[in-house]
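Hi C.,

You asked whether I'd gotten around to modeling the 254-residue construct. I have! Everything is below, sequence then structure, no commentary in between.
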Amino acid sequence: MSGRTTRTRLLAATTLAVAALSLTACGSGAVKDEGAATTSVAPTATQSAATPATPTAGSTTTQPRGGSSEGTAGSTGGAKNGGTATGAASGGKPGGTGSSGSASGGADASASGGDSDGPSRNKQCGAGNTRTTATPVARPLNHMLLTVTNTSSGLCDLLGYPVARFGEAQSVPPVIEETHPQAVVTLAPGESGYAGVLLSAADGSGQHGYTTTSLTVGFTDGTTARPKLAGMGVYVDSSLRVTYWQGSMDDALN
């Protein structure tokens, strides 16, 4: 009896020990569950820290904005620098296409405007664009009228006075200063200018007279005309004088 009792007590003690171990195991599992919860939260925190590009809240949103601004600034700066370089190469640099085009345009427009809109400069009347005639007149006595007619299609200025050389004379007659016109005589196409020539003294007081059948008239442009003298020619002496070119026949003969 005592031996059986002892085995029974040992069995009971063993059973209690196993139960205690089971309870201990259950308690340890509860601690693991908290640990699992903690482990479950930790990956979330790790995931949030590992994804800075996600536009959530806090520093994650601020960082992409800063990076984007820098990138934009860098891109913009590059575009500006590139644009500046392109402008300098194409026309922004000194003497570039833009500057040269402005100088050229300005130059070509000014010159063209001056040529087309400005008043044209008159040519001088000369043997090349006029016809010259020499005609004796009845009054005043011993006078001759030189007539110069513009045969060109433009205006010409009849300047100075005729350089009249009669025959083989070594000198030309002086001009009568009192006949200087108030303004330059300008001839339109077909118009005429005039000069009077005092051939000889009416009272016979002149000296070294002679008759000639040739006359050469010089103009201020250096050209000369040789108008024909009618009949037997003209008589000239030391009284020979000429007037300035005039715009009217009356002014020339008076």
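If it helps when you're writing up: The chain has two domains: 1-66, 123-253.

Thanks,
B.
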